[in-house]
Write a structure and sequence with these properties.
The chain is mainly beta and 237 residues long. The protein is 4% helix and 48% strand. Strands 1, 2, 3, 4, 5, 6, 7, 8 and 9 form a nine-stranded antiparallel beta sheet that branches. Strands 10-12-15-14 form a four-stranded antiparallel beta sheet, with no helix packed on it. The chain has a four-stranded mixed beta sheet with strand order 11-17-16-13, with no helix packed on it. It is globular and about 60 Å long.
């Protein structure tokens, strides 16, 4: 458990911001640290240290900050979509009151939703590279979200794919239900002399063909240990 205001690494956490236009929950990538500060003294006279995942007492004020490195698309130069939403919120591009929703989930998918206003964006650079951070203040009280178990995991488009040697095939992992709390998974390729994992971006997988042949990719959900298997056929072009 972590006391109010103590920063923690976000390596094992996922942080999303809700797109106010589409209602999509968009991951904010490139983050390294977040802190949540909950005021101990409350309107109802209760006091005590709070932790980010505990129940919140009515009347506490909440504020926080997140820090990371700027992420841009190498081809287009566009900002990471999640960071772009944070930027627009900080620049007050979202409308009159500019209320935002940030969702923080731990490694097993337990999540807290914060209604907030992004009050500041800061950029800095040193010998280690660029850094970006945002400060936010809560509007109302945080809400602990219901935990939704995974019932099934599969590959969109079927149980097989093909790719040429030296090229890549794009595959997407699909969880059921779609709002499952923990959508993390592990993977295993039987024969990496035939194909290897080129990149992973959330549910999106990029598989690279290495040599002619056939192998299998198995994924296993972190929640409920649901598995799915994909047959990969690699051919010479």
């Amino acid at each position: 458990m972590r006391k109010s205001g103590c920063p923690f690494t976000v390596k094992d956490y996922s942080i999303k911001i809700v797109n106010n236009v589409t209602d999509d929950k968009v991951p904010v990538k490139g983050l390294s640290e977040m802190s949540v500060d909950v005021e101990s003294e409350t309107e109802d006279g209760k006091s005590g240290d709070a932790t980010w995942a505990e129940s919140f007492i009515k009347g506490r004020s909440v504020a926080g900050s997140i820090t990371g490195r700027p992420i841009y698309d190498r081809t287009t130069g566009a900002r990471d979509p999640g960071q772009n939403l944070m930027h627009k919120a900080a620049m007050n591009d979202g409308g009159c009151d500019n209320d935002q929703t940030i969702i923080v989930a731990d490694a097993i998918g337990r999540a807290i939703e914060y209604d907030c206003v992004v009050t500041k964006e800061s950029m800095s650079a040193d010998e280690d590279g660029e850094e970006i951070s945002w400060d936010w203040e809560g509007v109302g009280q945080p809400r602990e979200l219901d935990y939704v178990q995974v019932s099934n995991v599969a590959y969109e488009g079927g149980e097989s794919t093909s790719v040429n040697v030296g090229e890549t095939a794009e595959v997407k992992v699909k969880f059921t239900p779609e709002n499952a709390s923990n959508q993390r998974f592990s993977y295993f390729i039987e024969d990496e002399s035939v194909a290897v994992m080129n990149a992973i971006d959330g549910p999106n997988l990029s598989i690279k063909g290495v040599s002619e042949g056939e192998t299998k990719l198995t994924i296993k959900s972190m929640n409920n240990n649901k598995t799915a298997q994909l047959t990969i056929t690699v051919s010479n072009p």
